[in-house]
Structure formats: structure tokens, C-alpha cells
Amino acid sequence: MLAFIKEIYEVESKNPEGKVEKNVVEIRHDPLTGRKTRINVNRAKRPHVSGASIKKSESKKEIKGCIFCKERWEETLQRFGEREGMEGQWIKVGKGKNEVVLFPNKFPFARRHVVVVLGGDHAVKLSKISEKTWVNAFLAISQYYQKLTRAEGKHYIYINLNFLPPSGASIEHPHMQIVCEQNMLYAHEFLLSASRRFERKHGMSYWKMLAEKDKERFVGDGNYFSFVCAFAPIANAETYGVGVAKPFHEHDEDEIKAMAVDFGKMMKCYEKTGFRSMNATIMFPLKGSEAETMPALARFIARPEPKEGYTADRGFMEIFYDEAVVHTLPEELAETLRKFW
Ligand SMILES: [Zn+2]
Question: Does the predicted model carry a pTM greater than 0.90?
């Protein structure tokens, strides 16, 4: 029989005036393959800010109309709703130029989906984001994760970056997106089962072997990740960062900082090679048994040059996790198409 399975979540946050806003997130399972698609019709209303990156302007302290520039945080950024244990609040870490703010996504595509603005300045070059800012961002993420865990239990955590519109970012001001899920994302599960098959056959973790043995594509060791370019990349210029074999909640503050420093350093390396727009992600195991087979894994890819009036429809979720995010309801589309048929 055909099984049309959908999970529906009502996700609440508060706007800056304190009014509750609701989004409906549908996760539909493809009846044949089980592959998931995420629908939030409100995402069509997302604001777009992309002027400075297209003109190749230098990074600026502030640009007009950008909701992520620090001058506007108080009047533009969402606050948490009642469920994540931080009602009416957001999380701020750091001071001055390096201050970051973490808040719920106004247009989420997961039940728990937050944004971290990487400093108040409108930095359209990755090299303008300081090491301290990366560290503050990762500390804010860690704080959020601890609060979420206390309020709702443990989740898989995915730390992501869409940088500039060709990567799927609707706002060019640098920001990260964190998705927390009770189930593994589709492609993460696929990688874990492939890693299990490899380990059964060869008696060793694929990722450990890759980091230690692939000398031809090895880039370097950081304090947290070992970086290796992918042999068969899923998009242009893919690099893996093979991290530590433990769940996110078992990391101490020094490890979180080391992770942030390595992540930021790799971004700068990509910029030096001539790429401006990027996608990046870090996925973490949740259980000890998963961690032994597949450690924390970062992935980085380069995207095309920014163009006027264009935001790509493929961001971190589609590229790294093979779950599509759309804002069109299939039933409404069918109704419209039927009229023209
Ligand atoms: Zn801005």
C-alpha cells in the first residue's frame, strides 16, 4: 500500500515585541524511498539581503536594511518561545566586534532550528570573521545545546553555514544555522551505515583510516579536526574534517574552542584559494556506539560566485543531508496546475 507519512510540528518563537509567532514544519517521507522533504510555506517570506557581496564591496560595520547588523538586533531578532527553556530570551556571547547572538530561526525547517549571527559587523569576506568570533559562536551553540538538553532531552546536533547567496543564504551577513533533531538526518544515517559496513569488513573506522592514510589528499591537522580533501567530492572543492569520536555533549570547553578555531581557519584557507561562497557543516554522533564508527565530521564545499538577484535553492540541508527544504505545498501546486490543465 502507498503510505503517505508526514510529521507535523508547530514551532513557536517570539518576535521582538514579545508576540508569539508560529510556523508549521512538515517533514514528508517519500512513499518509495523514505527520503525526507521539509516544507514551511512561510519561508517564501524570508527577507533577502545581498547587495555588498555582489558588488564585491569590502566588509562594512553596517548596511542599510540588514536585519543581522548589530544596530538592529534589538528590533529585528526573534526570541525563544516557551519550550526550549529560554522564554523571551536569546543567547549572547562576547563583547564588541566579536559579540555573537543566537536566537530561534524566524522561518525554521526543523522543530529546533536556531541562528547564530557571527558578529555585528556586515562581513562579506570570511577572513573578516575573527578567531574570537568563531569561538564565541561555538560557545553560544554549546550553551544552547545544554539548555535544550535540560528542557527536552538529548538531540542530534548539526552545525551549519551557508555563506553568501549562491550557498542558499538569503542574508549575506555571516551567520550559522543549527539544527537539532531527535532522529538522524537522512544522509548522516546513510554515511553511518556505510561506515559500519566498512568497519565490519576492514576492522577499523573508515574515518580514522582516511585521516591517517590518505596522504595524497591530506591537508593538515588542527587541534580538533584532521582535514582531508574528498576523493569523490559531492560538489566543487570538498574537504572533510575528521573530528573526535564522541557525542557533542561530552566535549569540554577547550575542545569546543579548538573545534571553532579549526573551522574558522579552514574557511580562511578556502577564501585564499579564491572561493567566496561556501557551505559547511559538522555532524555529531549521539550514542557511544555511533561515535566509535563515525566521529564528529565536518564537510566544506565551495559555491559559484555571487550574482545579482539570485539565492540558490540548495543549502546545507540539500547538499550535505539530502533532505530538500521547500516552501510550496504539493497539494496547492496540484490544485493550481489542474486549473491550467
Ligand atoms: Zn548586516
Answer: yes
